[in-house]
């Protein structure tokens, strides 16, 4: 049952994300302009990229046009055709101008995760950030966890200010581990993340480029490293990486038809303390 709450790869990805029994694999992905512009072939390609994940956080779902929500439903249907049952939830439109506002979404493999409670935008932060984060609780083989899905403002609009605000969510859910899945528009080594680092938080990947250039100058098509997953000390990293579905420069134009960002993934398990 699909839930709505108020509040190319034209190339196969060979990296398998399937997690072991006590771990869970997570993906964060800014799917640029996820909505009417995405063809059926591009939606099918996304499903092939994501098929081995277990929970996916999506940023930049078109907000005003209902085709944004419909594109998430199309992606869930395409994922179902990969051999597992998937469900999804999407947020209300975030605040901000029509140009800035968007929706978020989560998709998950129902055999590996289930929702806890009612997801929603953090309305208390609406006056402090342009796109307030979308928070959802999940029950997983690695234990219960809270996911914070967030898209910060562009680098020239000081996303550091927003990050200082949302990092308070790390301690807002009692003993339940909180994972931040975001397009931060800030690189992972920035000092704005130091307070959470001191509390034991770590990034899924470090120093890896996650956006795509418009052209392949000098044979390099990857650009800024601004997409990442920030996980807490209660969870242990099993493995992680960037899902580079481009492969070589000849495929860049087709890849950008899906997004100008690459997905970042990790597999984590609960830390067992003596």
In short:
The protein has about 270 residues and is of the alpha+beta class. Helix content is about 15%, strand content about 30%. The protein has helices at about 40-50, 65-80, 160-165, 195-200, 250-255, and strands spanning about 25-35, 55-60, 85-90, 100-110, 115-120, 135-140, 145-150, 180-185, 200-205, 225-230, 235-240, 265-270.
Question: What order do the helices and strands come in, and which of them pair?
Answer:
Elements lengths: L22 E12 L5 H11 L4 E8 L4 H14 L5 E5 L11 E8 L4 E8 L12 E7 L2 E9 L7 H8 L11 E6 L10 H5 L3 E2 L23 E5 L3 E8 L9 H5 L7 E7 L4
Parallel strand pairs: 1-2, 7-8
Antiparallel strand pairs: 1-12, 2-4, 3-4, 5-6, 6-7, 8-10, 9-10, 11-12
Helix pairs in contact: 1-2
Describe the protein's architecture and organization:
The protein has five helices and twelve strands. The chain has 274 residues and is an alpha+beta fold. The protein has one domain (23-270): Deoxyribonuclease I, Chain A. Mean pLDDT is 92; it is low at 1-20.
- Structural class by secondary-structure content: alpha+beta
Largest sheet: 6 strands, mixed
* Assigned CATH class: Alpha Beta
What is the domain tally?
1
The CATH architecture is 4-Layer Sandwich
Strand content: 25-35%
